């Protein structure tokens, strides 16, 4: 079992295509997307990831939210709004885009979650706060850092691997 963690796709269809191949090769069961798809036309390309469940939140650059939700439904994805909290493959998860660093820290420190996922900074990060694993997968698009990154998480081991594609 693997969880694919991604953020900040920002309409880069070529990068999304490469990412889909990478995630399919890793045999991910669930994809968590921390926002900034930007345009709805990215979702059918993301749908090339062969996973059982895709859960996403909105980012600060996601303007066409109603149409994003509509396209997400068409391809079988769930876009839940600004924040997701729930269980994913046995982990208690909180996910937000991360525009407010204080909110990310509060979620990490509250002790209610095994995993906190965020994006926005475009920089990959993995750290532990108490018993909570905090993961920022970096950016799929590669526009800010010049690196296209995502994260793979083994939920049983709580082990993160960053992939560059």
Automatic annotation (TrEMBL):
Keyword terms of this UniProt record: Metal-binding
Superkingdom of origin organism: Archaea
Organism: Methanopyrus kandleri
Official protein name in the record: Phosphoesterase
Cofactor(s) named in the record: a divalent metal cation
Pfam family, one: Metallophos_2
EC number: 3.1.4.-
Occurrences of domain Calcineurin-like phosphoesterase (ranges): 1-157
Family from the record: Belongs to the metallophosphoesterase superfamily. YfcE family.
